[in-house]
Each structure stands twice: as C-alpha cells, then as structure tokens.
Amino acid sequence: MKKFKNIIIIFSLLILYIYVCNITFLPSSYIIMQGESVNINTILGLNLQEKRDLYTLQTVSNVNQKPINEIGKIDFNLSLFNLFSVKDISVNVIPKTTVVPIGKAIGMKLYTDGVLVVGMSEIDGKKPYENSGIKEGDRIIQINQKEIDTTEDLMKVVNTSNGNSLSIKYIRDETTITTSITPIKNENNEYKLGLWVRDAAAGVGTLTFYEPSTNMFGTLGHGILDVDTSELIKIENGELVTTNILSVEKGQKGSPGEIRGTIESGYTIGEISKNTEFGVFGLLNKPSYLNISNEKAMDVCLREEIKLGKAQIICELENGKREYYDIEIQKIYTNNNQDNKSMLIKVTDDELIEKTGGIIQGMSGAPIIQNGKFVGAVTHVLVNDPTLGYGVFADIMLKQMREVN
Q1: Which residues are tagged catalytic?
Q2: What sign has the CA pseudo-torsion 141, 143, 146, 150?
Q3: What are the residue ranges spanned by the domains of the chain?
Q4: pLDDT tens-digit series, residues 22-34
Q5: What is the pLDDT of residues 34-55, one digit of tens each?
Q6: 207 has which bridge partners?
Q7: Cα gap 236→139, rounded to integer Å
Q8: CATH code reported for the domain at 98-109+201-402
Q9: Which pLDDT does position 50 carry in this prediction?
C-alpha cells in the first residue's frame, strides 16, 4: 500500500511539473499578422479567455484555428479549468503589409553596446583578470563610471590608471555585474587588463526585403554571431553598406561555398537597429542605391498559405545582376516559432546548381517567392548536400522587425 501511495505522489508531482512548465514557457506576449491564428499551444485543462474589460472574461473556442482580423492589442487570460487564473497573455495584431523582395548582396557593419570580450592573455606571466569573474562573451560598458563605447575608450582609461584598481561594469546574459581589475604594466610601459576586446563586426549577406510604407528593411533571416564567442552580437547600432562581389566559390558536399564581397568602397544606405536570431533590421535611407521599384511590392504570405512544391529565390551572383532561381519547398514546419528553420527547401534550378552547387554562404537572406507572394528567406545550407537548406517564414521576420526592443 505504501509503495502504491508513493507511485501516486510521484505521478501527481510529475503532472504538476508538466503543467508548471507549460505555463512558464508560454510567452506573456505574442505578435501575429492580420488574418493569422494565435497558435498558443496548451495542454488539457488550460483554457484561454479573452478579456473584454476589467471584469468580463469570455472563453475563446478554437483560438488556435480562428484567424484574427482585428488590428491592435487583444488581452487573454490563461486559466486552469476556467476556475483559476494562472497567466495574462497579450496578442498584438499587426496589419498586413506589402514589401519589395530584393535579393541583392549587401554589407553590414555592427557596433556593439560596449566592448565585447573575445579573449584573454597573460601579462608577463600574470592574469590581472583572474579573480574578476569576467569571461569571453561579456560586454564591458563602464570603467570608473566612464561609459565605454569603443576599444579606444577602454585603452585610454586603462593607460591613465597608473596601476590603480579599476571598477568595471559589464553585462552577461542581460545581467549587469560590477567587478574590479588592477592593470599590470607590460614591457612597453603600457597598462593592460589582459583582455582582448572588440567593438565592431562586419559581414556580407543578401538583403531580403524593403517595406515602402515604413522604409524599414530586413536581411539575412538569421543573426550575426561573433566569430570568437559564437554568440549573437548585442549591438548599439550599425550601418547597411553597398557591397562589391569579388568572386563566387562553388559549394560541394562537406565544403560550403561562399559569395565573397567587399564593403571597403561601399556607400552607407541604411541604419541597423536590430541584430536578432531571425534577421538584421533597420531603416533604409537611400533605396535609390538599390535600383528597386515600389511597383514590385507584393503581399507577405502567411505561413498557413505556403504550399509544398515550386517556389523561387532571388539572389545576386554578379554585380548589378539579380536573378530568379527555381527551388522546391519540401517541408513546412507551421508551428515552429523557436528557430529560423521554418521550411526545408531544395534548389532545383540547373543554372544555379552549375554556378554555386546550391545554397552557399552569403546567400542567407535571399527572398523566397511563391505564387506572387513573399514567403520567407534562405537561412541555412545542409553541408552534406548543398542543394538542400532551410528558410525562415516571412511573418517571423516582419514580427521581429516590428517588435520594440
């Protein structure tokens, strides 16, 4: 009997744990596009009720299947068996829009919020940073109450320290931490912390779309990671820069190809404000440099409207020459909001396969078009088969662009 009771207790705790996890992992806010359903996945007994006012709740049936056409904010309450309120959830419905798919090679310069720690080294056999708690991937934002925006700022403060202990404020995983380091003088009579830092990064990809109504743009379909820490770069701001394609290296099984370009003589045509897991976004100031026409604007396709089968991508492999290439959408992961692998795609265009072998580095952000609508953007290639890769849904990119930091 005692063993049976223990089993019942363990089973009950397991059920409770599942419910707690489901409630905890549900975001408190969602962004959806007009005409899209909410797709809030809950387990048995957890019900959504729409808040009509402060005192009135109305149970919503089939909320995950019912398209919402009302633009604005809708507040829901998540309850357990319609008896106990457990969480408030807000849904922001953004209007449908039209965008101009671009598919042009573009450069990006990103400037970090503070300076990023990318490595550490000893100074004459000593480690001044040893007990500070600072690690690679941390961002130093302040030293002795002085804001640190560039590597030059950091070097100036450290070199004028006269070897005195410095109070350092840094950020790790959105948490601000304060520590101290005493600089050490090296053989060149310069004071050093033993930290390697960087304040900027640059890259080349494909510009995905431009929204004429707001002058906003989206590119890449994934974020820019730091080459040393492999973490998403937290930026203060950045620049969108025209690029010059130098060469195209064909991809092969086990060896991804690459579009090589330079931004050294490029023109700054936009301001970057966001570097997210689903793309890089900002404001396009000089669309004329891209030679695009607002008359080419098209509707954004909701994920429920995407079909398996034929589609096209737009990309630039030669300067000033954007082309449409045939692909096939083989799988659609409709409920995936966690990463940028929304669709499995296959390059079927013989000309593109001859030129590149399929999807190559630098092609990230190439817009995907199906039935005259903007479907999404290329994000990844499968190394063992360059003709296969992934794309991210267009609606995810639009939501990330509109979301306020």
Answers
A1: 222, 349, 364
A2: negative
A3: 2-94, 98-109+201-402, 122-193
A4: 777 777 766 777 7
A5: 777 776 667 777 777 777 654 4
A6: 104, 219
A7: 12
A8: 2.40.10.120
A9: 73
